[in-house]
Amino acid sequence: MQKIWLYVWRGYIRMGMFFYFRRVNVFGLENLPKNQPVLILGNHRNALLDALLVACYTNRLSHYLTRAGVFKKNVVSKFLKSLQMLPVYRIRDGWGNLTNNNAIFENCTELLNKNKTVVIFPEGGHDLVRRVRPLSKGFTRIVFDSLEKYPEMDLQLVPVGLNFQETLGCPDSASIYYGKPIAAKKFVNSNRNEGVVNLKTKIQMEMAKLTADIPKDTYEHDLKILDALNVNYLNPESVNRCIKNKFENCETRKPSKLNWLRTILKYLLILNLLVPYVIWKKVAQPKIKELEFTATFRFAIAITLVPLYIILITLILGGLFNASIALIYLISVLLLSLITVKL
User: Fold this and answer.
1) Mean pLDDT along residues 97-112
2) How many CB atoms lie within 10 A of CB 270?
3) Domain limits of the chain?
4) CA angle 273, 276, 281 (to 5 degrees)
5) How far is residue 112's CA from residue 115's CA, in Å, rounded to a whole number?
6) Can you tell me the distance from the alpha carbon of 32 to that of 157, in angstroms, rounded to the nearest whole number?
7) What's the farthest any 2 CA atoms get from each other in the chain?
């Protein structure tokens, strides 16, 4: 029953992403081992949307370590846990809560021993910056505790790069790069601290290859040039090569000649979805305290209020006129949404 529940929600969310993203490209999915314990380690730029993308565009039903702050409300907590999300506490959640992580990490060890998949964003928090930030030690604790308890476990570590063209824009495009699996055993030695450092260094280096990794010291300068060049952030190898070559011979995107049509379609779509749009602009968006949650809340409205509104208008038209008029409206607004997003 649990699997059916997960597949239903994954199918629904993936359908929502089809209408939300202009495109989502997935590379290296074959790198995810089958019938082995896997720890997926990804960069974290786009709040809950990062976990949803991995959930929808992978071939395994995973468990996710998620910031404990989103589990505060009981109803939300039950729902998230039903989707195999596990709360993990950070220092900002209070020192007293950090001990709660012991049980969560032990749970991860048992899941991995059953050849399950656990997804962690080891940067320890989300940030809009286009670089891989220093990794926290939490994931290394899970790795070494698991191998200490189950020495024969063939734990595989798969780095992931999540890339967004605009992040705050809508519609956005995304690309997901799954790196080659790394055997965790080779980092185990008599000096655990040394193993932790080596593991963090290796994973950060591999993650940096899979997403745009702009150096911290020249970040603002480099970002300004990359944006001016209109580079394709969905191709991290190209972007990183552009930075390395001091912005010479960079792959750039050609300006679209259909921006005028996109603008017209956008306003037509807003007129057809006026109530959800007003709720987003006047109620939801002003309450967002962290910009990283912008896309997450926008997507949440897109897969909840928007479908309900469309269904409501369809029923009203069917009651006032007839089923044919209602069906024409339904098909028209769905096509308009699809064309506006994909164009």
Assistant:
1) 85
2) 14
3) 2-211, 259-342
4) 115
5) 5
6) 9
7) 77
- Alpha carbon separation from 224 to 48, 49, 237 (Å, rounded): 27, 25, 18
Please name which of 51, 57, 113 lies closest in space to residue 83, comparing C-alpha atoms: 51
Indicate the burial class of 223 (C-beta count within 10 angstroms; 0-12, 13-18, 19 or more).
Answer: middle
Place of tokens 């967002």: 288
Q: What is the average pLDDT across 12-22? A: 95
Give 147-195 pLDDT, tens digit per residue: 999 999 999 999 999 999 998 888 999 999 999 999 999 999 889 999 9
Give the residue-averaged pLDDT of 57-68. Answer: 87
State the burial class of residue 336 (Cβ atoms within 10 Å of its Cβ: 0-12, 13-18, 19+). middle
Residue with tokens 């897109």: 302
For 26, residues 6+ apart whose C-beta sits below 8 A from its C-beta are 57, 175, 176, 178
Nearest residue to 143 (alpha-carbon basis) of 155, 134, 159, 160 = 155
Q: What is the DSSP letter of 249?
A: S
Q: Which tokens in the block code for residue 78?
A: 């039950």
90, with CB counted inside 10 A (0-12, 13-18, 19+), is: middle
- Regarding pTM above 0.85, the answer is yes
Please state, in angstroms and as integers, the Cα–Cα distance from residue 152 to each residue in 36, 108, 149, 155, 182, following that order.
12, 16, 9, 9, 16
Give the containing element (helix H, strand E) for 42.
strand 38-42
Q: Find the range with the poorest average confidence among 19-23, 58-62, 130-134, 333-337.
A: 58-62
Supply the DSSP string of 2-26, one letter for each residue: HHHHHHHHHHHHHHHHHHH-SEEEE
Tell me the pLDDT band of 104, cut-offs 50, 70 and 90: confident
Note the CATH architecture for domain 2-211: 3-Layer(aba) Sandwich (3.40)
